[in-house]
């Protein structure tokens, strides 16, 4: 059945539950036959819903997602069906709606053909797309229970789709810069680290499945383009329940866009300074007449230069997902994404003299080579299977496979220091390649249970993930175009085209890393 959790405190206490039948319940019902929706509402709410199966046999109910009182949920399911519902105590009756004077109770009413068009109300879901909001009604990053920000027992933030669009956020770096308590530490033109509470963030989550971004792997995995995502949820502090081992910094959970019940398409473009151009296309909707098969595709492309001379970048993004209702209670989704980034940045910034003062150089100065590159490619393949039981419980299986690659060839600048500071600058070439593969799996069940005369909520699950990193590279000498070795460089007349592209031994250095984590977790919300 489609579903039942609201908010929770990790192994903690919540507010007093006074009126169980009238209390709002969290629902996640698909567009489906009306009889199935009524049965699932009955299981989630505890109401005894009485209806004539023959009267509802040919009628469908719209999708219903969010936290609603049972009576309101019943009215929404019956909207447009020609039927009415009435809740009396712990029972509810569904019967034909009166159509005018002269129709006595119990008389049959010919309703004719009915057409039901279901639209999702984003205000009642965790989805932020089309909500126009800078917040979300529920998030699961902290405990897997759908809690509002107010009810979550940790410091949390969310960057919604509306905020991304309003503030022109393009990738995860932009989103992290806009989150309270998180910082983006730039230690090279293409190298960043995220930090919170004095620790580096060493995991990024995709739909709740963690991926490591430790010392070397953070160079490999690109800052994800936000065109693919509905929102970014952040939990500050330790989140070992969902992430396993790691720093007590923060959990960053990137929640992907999902297919919509209705057809929609959008095309966006932007132009910026330094010849920056970007375009996005997003198409989503049903793939069959019943709406039980849905799909979505997103593509994005951007290209531009920089405030630094001779520096440019290019990005291509593809994201696709298909979602199928295998039955009224079972939904399967599978998708893939690819992001390719190509840059010709220098690896590091400029050295600084003794004492920490800056070199007297222009902001636009570039002391790399015209043959430098920093190219990354990140591919995800993911799927999930959700089944909703009639008793209000839900089970979900999820998997994410990531392949990431980086190839980099470039220069790093250094100083020979004297007692007075930087005596001379030198340039050193390097050629490196890294690969980083991740597998992440998660299975959990969640739902209500009865104890001491009250209803409580529980999540129980298990997770497994592994990572395999392989890097190698080398360094060597740099030569001028005439074949002579380069010596100390003069930064004043520097030309990026003045050196030959080196051929380096890329097996002078190598590193292999492997890690594996297995875990089990339990979360409960107790109503006392």
Describe the fold and architecture:
The protein has 528 residues and is mainly beta. The protein folds into 3 domains: 12-98, Phage tail protein beta-alpha-beta fold; 123-255, TonB-dependent receptor, plug domain (Ferric Hydroxamate Uptake Protein, Chain A, domain 1); 301-526, Maltoporin, Chain A. Helix content is 9%, strand content 47%. It contains 7 helices and 26 strands. The chain has helices at 34-45, 53-56, 70-78, 161-166, 172-177, 217-220, 240-243, and strands at residues 12-13, 25-29, 32-33, 48-50, 60-61, 64-68, 83-88, 91-96, 155-160, 182-186, 192-196, 199-200, 203-206, 209-212, 229-236, 250-256, 264-272, 276-286, 293-305, 312-327, 330-343, 373-388, 394-418, 421-451, 454-475, 509-526. Strands 1-26-25-24-23-22-21-20-19-18-17 form an 11-stranded mixed β-sheet. The longest helix has 12 residues, at 34-45. The radius of gyration is 28 Å and the shape is elongated. 39% of the residues are buried.
Task: Indicate the topology.
Elements: E1 12-13, E2 25-29, E3 32-33, H1 34-45, E4 48-50, H2 53-56, E5 60-61, E6 64-68, H3 70-78, E7 83-88, E8 91-96, E9 155-160, H4 161-166, H5 172-177, E10 182-186, E11 192-196, E12 199-200, E13 203-206, E14 209-212, H6 217-220, E15 229-236, H7 240-243, E16 250-256, E17 264-272, E18 276-286, E19 293-305, E20 312-327, E21 330-343, E22 373-388, E23 394-418, E24 421-451, E25 454-475, E26 509-526
Parallel strand pairs: 1-26, 4-8, 13-16
Antiparallel strand pairs: 2-6, 3-5, 7-8, 9-15, 10-11, 11-12, 13-14, 15-16, 17-18, 18-19, 19-20, 20-21, 21-22, 22-23, 23-24, 24-25, 25-26
Helix pairs in contact: 1-3
């Amino acid at each position: 059945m489609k579903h039942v959790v609201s908010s929770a405190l990790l192994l903690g206490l919540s507010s007093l539950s006074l009126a169980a039948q009238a209390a709002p319940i969290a629902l996640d019902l698909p567009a489906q036959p009306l009889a199935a929706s009524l049965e699932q509402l009955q299981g989630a709410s505890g109401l005894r819903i009485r209806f004539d199966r023959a009267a509802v046999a040919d009628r469908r109910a719209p999708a219903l997602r969010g936290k609603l009182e049972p009576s309101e949920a019943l009215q929404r399911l019956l909207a447009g069906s020609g039927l009415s519902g009435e809740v009396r105590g712990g029972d509810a009756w569904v019967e034909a709606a009166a159509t005018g004077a002269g129709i006595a109770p119990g008389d049959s009413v010919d309703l004719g053909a009915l057409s039901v068009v279901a639209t999702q109300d984003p205000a009642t879901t965790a989805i932020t797309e089309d909500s126009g909001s800078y917040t979300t009604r529920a998030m699961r990053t902290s405990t897997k229970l759908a809690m509002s920000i107010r009810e979550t027992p940790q410091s949390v933030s969310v960057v919604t789709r509306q905020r991304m669009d309003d503030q022109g956020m393009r990738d995860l770096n932009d989103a992290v810069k806009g989150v309270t308590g998180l910082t983006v530490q730039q230690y090279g033109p293409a190298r960043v680290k995220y930090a919170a509470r004095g620790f580096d963030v060493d995991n990024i989550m995709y739909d709740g499945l963690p991926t490591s971004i430790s010392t070397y792997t953070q160079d490999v995995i690109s800052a994800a383009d936000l065109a693919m995502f509905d929102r970014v949820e952040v939990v500050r502090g330790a989140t070992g329940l969902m992430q396993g081992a790691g720093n007590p910094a923060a959990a960053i959970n990137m929640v992907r866009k999902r297919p919509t019940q209705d057809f929609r398409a959008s095309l966006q473009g932007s132009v910026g300074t330094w010849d920056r151009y970007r375009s996005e296309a997003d198409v989503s909707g049903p793939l069959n007449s019943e709406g039980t098969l849905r799909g979505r595709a997103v593509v994005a492309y951007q290209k531009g230069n920089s405030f630094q001379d001779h520096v440019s970048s290019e990005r291509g993004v593809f994201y696709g997902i298909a979602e199928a209702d295998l039955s009224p209670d079972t939904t399967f989704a599978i998708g893939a994404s690819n992001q390719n980034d190509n840059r010709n940045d220098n690896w590091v910034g400029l050295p600084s003299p003794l004492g920490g003062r800056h070199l007297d150089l222009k902001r636009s100065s570039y002391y790399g080579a015209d043959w430098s590159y920093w190219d990354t490619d990140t591919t995800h393949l993911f799927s999930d299977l959700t089944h909703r039981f009639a008793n209000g419980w839900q089970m979900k299986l999820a998997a994410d496979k990531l392949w990431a690659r980086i190839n980099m060839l470039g220069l790093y600048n250094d100083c020979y220091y004297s007692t007075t500071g930087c005596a001379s600058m030198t340039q050193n070439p390097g050629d490196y390649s890294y690969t980083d593969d991740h597998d992440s799996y998660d299975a959990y069940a969640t739902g209500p249970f009865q104890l001491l005369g009250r209803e409580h909520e529980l999540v129980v699950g298990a997770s497994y993930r592994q990572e395999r990193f392989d890097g190698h590279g080398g360094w060597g000498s740099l030569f001028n175009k005439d074949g002579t070795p380069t010596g100390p460089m003069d930064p004043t007349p520097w030309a990026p085209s003045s050196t030959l592209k080196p051929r380096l031994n890329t097996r002078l250095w190598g590193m292999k890393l492997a890690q594996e984590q297995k875990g089990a977790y339990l979360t409960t919300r107790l109503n006392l």
